[in-house]
Amino acid sequence: MKRFRSFLIIIITALVLSACSSSKSNDVDSPSASPTSTADPAAPSDTASTDPSGSPQTSLFVEVKSGGSIIQSYTFNDKLENAVFRKHTSLPYGVYVPEFMDQREFSEGVEWGYGEPRNSFAIMDGSLIQPEFQQTEPDLATYKEYVGTDRSDPKMEYDYFSFHGESHELIIRFAYTIEEKAEALKLFLAMITSLRETHSNEDFKAGVFLTYDESSLDETQKAVLQCAMASMDAIIARDAKSFAKTLESQAIADALSFLIDDGNLYRFEELESITALDEKRYNVNVVYKRLSEESFLFNSSYAFTVRKNKDGEWKVANID
């Protein structure tokens, strides 16, 4: 009997050890045993471009360097409000701002706002401020540049966005009361897409600085080029009379008068080509930079169409 009991104990012990070994093996292979995150679910993600929902995100800044489209008005409270471009006082950026919003400066940047308590849109120097974000606004997490929300003030909400330029890091802040948030948020989201990089007039040298190999041009090409360059010189000088003399007619001068009157500065930099359209018509293709009144820098090209008139003179027939 004792032998039977001893044998039974041995068998039970073996079965228990086998079960433990099997359990350990299953634990290693089971996905449920992988480490779990201990991050605070209310804390913002380290990578602001990651949407927790996995949905594709949208960038708010798509026209910053190009100068972008001109914004003339915004819709606010079902009413069109005229907008004007306002520059930051110390950073090379600005936005289109509704005329009813006044400007104020503070230590970290510049804001435009309305009302009391004040609803405002601010551009701040990212090197001077590191805001703390206690919460995340799900509706704003769809934007790549959204970084977090501060609701520590029971009467106000502050939403923050970041922009990384070549030489500056910006923090954009929306501030609004709970009552104004719905309308103010729509307006501020429209304003943030109007962020533009600006350039100093003092750093921009206007003029005609075409680079080309004169020895590669025949006599006709040289004459055509000189005609086009006379037009460029008149544009740089904003001399309407001299400009008109380089053109085929006064009607063309009137049609192209915007090149003199639009307040832009031009720098003609490179001769791309001189192309014969026929025996009496050539295109002079040039690369240029343009600095707008708002201090936006554009890179583009013009084709000066030069044509020989009945008197045998080369005149500009169009600039496109």
Question: Which short descriptors sum up this protein?
Answer:
34% strand; 15 strands; alpha+beta; disordered N terminus; 6 helices; Nuclear Transport Factor 2, Chain: A; Jelly Rolls; single chain; signal; six-stranded antiparallel sheet; 320 residues; 23% helix; 2 domains
Structural summary, described in words:
- This protein is an alpha+beta fold.
- It folds into 2 domains: 126 residues, Jelly Rolls (Sandwich); 118 residues, Nuclear Transport Factor 2, Chain: A, CATH 3.10.450.50.
- It is 23% helix and 34% strand.
- The chain contains 6 helices and 15 strands.
- The chain is elongated.
- The termini are far apart.
- Keywords: Signal.
Number of strands: 15
- What is the arithmetic mean of pLDDT? 84
Low confidence ranges: 1-50
Total discrete domains: 2
> Number of helical segments?
6
Signal peptide: 1-25
Biased composition (Low complexity): 23-53
Region (Disordered): 23-58
Keywords: Signal
Q: What's the arrangement of secondary structure elements?
A:
Layout: H1 2-29, E1 73-76, E2 79-87, E3 93-98, E4 102-106, E5 109-114, E6 119-125, E7 146-150, E8 156-164, E9 169-177, H2 181-192, E10 196-197, E11 207-211, H3 219-237, H4 240-245, H5 250-255, H6 258-261, E12 265-278, E13 281-291, E14 297-308, E15 314-319
Parallel strand pairs: 11-12
Antiparallel strand pairs: 1-2, 2-3, 3-10, 4-5, 5-6, 6-9, 7-8, 8-9, 12-13, 13-14, 14-15
